[in-house]
């Protein structure tokens, strides 16, 4: 049985990382960012492909963004503020390809995080994913858009 835990935290910074510089040059360019860590190596998970989909009124999913983690295991500027509207979203990470490239066998083909966006007003989100070949865990940092 695989258990998935998503925790939403309110912290004062978003779209900031290692060197403490704001990414994308503008707060409006970073309503959704991701960070992926490899628990086996204790290091950022580089070259993890992901896609972000929005749930439609009929219950189907429409892809709205895609990206690949950089050398810091991060993806910023996935979607612009104007396109990141209220609704249910799903981030799907291609974990099988990541573990195959690392020479490991994985239990899961993908890690999925499904979440509601902007239920408490306009927010910015950073999804963090900690990977191992047989499990994954997620957490999220949620901020007001201009805190």
UniProtKB/TrEMBL annotation:
Any GO CC annotation of this UniProt entry: extracellular region
Any one GO molecular function term: thyroid hormone binding
Residue intervals of the Transthyretin/hydroxyisourate hydrolase domain: 27-147
Main location, first listed in the record: secreted
Domain of life: Eukaryota
Biological processes, Gene Ontology terms: purine nucleobase metabolic process
Keyword field contains Transport: yes
Record has Ribonucleoprotein as a keyword: no
Keyword annotations of the record: Hormone, Secreted, Sulfation, Thyroid hormone, Transport
Subcellular location: Secreted
Signal peptide positions on this chain: none
Subunit architecture: Homotetramer.
Function: Thyroid hormone-binding protein. Probably transports thyroxine from the bloodstream to the brain.
Family: Belongs to the transthyretin family.
Name the UniProt record assigns to this protein: Transthyretin
Gene source species: Scleropages formosus
Gene: TTR
């Amino acid at each position: 049985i695989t258990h998935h835990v998503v925790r939403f935290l309110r912290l004062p910074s978003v779209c900031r990382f290692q060197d403490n510089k704001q990414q994308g040059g503008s707060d409006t360019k970073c309503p959704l960012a991701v960070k992926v860590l490899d628990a086996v190596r204790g290091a950022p998970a580089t070259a993890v492909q992901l896609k972000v989909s929005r749930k439609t009124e009929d219950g189907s999913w429409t892809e709205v963004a895609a990206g690949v983690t950089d050398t810091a295991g991060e993806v910023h500027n996935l979607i612009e503020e104007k396109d990141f509207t209220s609704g249910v979203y799903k981030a799907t990470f291609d974990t099988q390809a990541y573990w195959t490239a690392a020479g490991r066998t994985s239990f899961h083909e993908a890690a999925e995080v499904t979440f509601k966006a902007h239920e408490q007003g306009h927010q910015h989100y950073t999804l963090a994913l900690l990977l191992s070949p047989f499990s994954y865990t997620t957490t999220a940092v949620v901020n007001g858009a201009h805190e």
